[in-house]
Predict the structure.
Amino acid sequence: MAVDTIFARASGAGKAGVAVYRLSGPEAFSIFRKLVGKWIINREAAYVAVRDPADGSVTGRGQLIDRGLAILFEGPKSFTGEDVVELSLHGSRAVEEALYDALTRAGARPAEAGEFTLRALKNDKLDLAQVEALADLIDSETSLQRKQALGQLDGRLSEAAEGWRKEILAVMAPLEADIDFPDEGDVPAAVAARAGPAIAALKTSLTTFLNQSVSARKIREGVSIAIIGPPNAGKSSLINALAGSDVAIVSDIAGTTRDIVETRLDLGVVATIADTAGLRSMASDAIEEEGVKRAKSRAKQADIRVLVIDGSETVSRETLLSGLTENVPRETLDLVHPGDIIVWNKSDKTNVDISPEKEHSPYTELSVSAKTGAGMAGLLQALTQKAAEGVNNDGPALTRARHAAAVEEAIAALTRAEANIERAPELAAEDARLAARALGKITGAVGVEDVLGEIFSSFCIGK
Ligand SMILES: Nc1nc2c(ncn2[C@@H]2O[C@H](COP(=O)(O)OP(=O)(O)O)[C@@H](O)[C@H]2O)c(=O)[nH]1
Ligand SMILES: [Mg+2]
């Protein structure tokens, strides 16, 4: 099947001093010649005039479109593995339109979203884990995300997955030999003696790896923080103070915040912080009631909860934590887990003195004033620390649910192999084969077609 030559703007849309256009495919170089009228040296930037070969006969003589830098990348040493042309021209709508017309007339077609990367995958320039890493790198917002994506783009995860897959295959080989020579009576015991511990060791390393993946996914997906508490405690004031902008409406009318208001914070790790409706049992109407329901459900899903208390109104720490305070019922306290944060707000008014007991508290307790900003640096620090807890970005990491599912599948298969190894080595061999297959899904050595749609749906044109 003939492969089309495709083009797209690789740099962001809109007006810009320079925009990079990419052309890839078997006709990329001949189309370049039609527009530029000459050859340039592979992998060397050259200043060229790009012209519209409208009359179809004389190359390089048409109407001038723009001048700029061109680089040729001869396949397979290019991003897609095909012949690639990169043109850095002026980033204007008119240049873009004229260029697209000319390229289309010269025989190329506009690329679909992610099509360059898809070609890189098909031509073995990147494996599936690296394609995901590329998407993550382009989407990265924090330095941890950037480093993690770069590591994966370098093949850190792919190498680990491939390494384990090969180890499993190595363990499997004597099991298969056993199947081939079933008459040698003492083989099963010897095989089991050797393969059993090897399978157990593999299972252990895969399980450790899987457990670490929680933090890797946190880096990619971000941690979720929910601000909860009774009405008028200052939850909305707090999110505004943290975000440094008015994301939520502040008012002394109880029940003002009804839906969840979210904003992003860079705590080293990306964090989504949510302001929620005040928790009270006597909601004034059905909308507020729904808001309370959402607040509770968000509190349950969040990685970190921040319970905000009006410290100027609460009588004492004991009454609060025993659930005796009228406006902070037991039900609200039950949403808060050990390790979560309790913020005693409005410290600018008289506030409960938490200093004697806070050292022994199962929670991180802080006295702040969302109004004056007192104590806010400490809160930010506590959030940063909790968000970073257990986040480790050294070494390969399972950054997506898809990777974790593949490792889980491999562990389950190895568990079956372990159980079968003495009684039925042929079944154990099959289980080991399935474990290897499961790991092959990470790089796309297996089952690539099943996940392509989902992975590439996040790509935009030009990637
Ligand atoms: N004095 C004082 N007032 C505050 C503080 N934080 C919030 N408030 C006030 O408390 C009222 C309720 O605040 P709001 O943020 O809307 O509370 P929410 O219902 O928990 O979201 C508003 O009148 C705020 O101005 C604070 O630290 N000190
Ligand atoms: Mg509010």
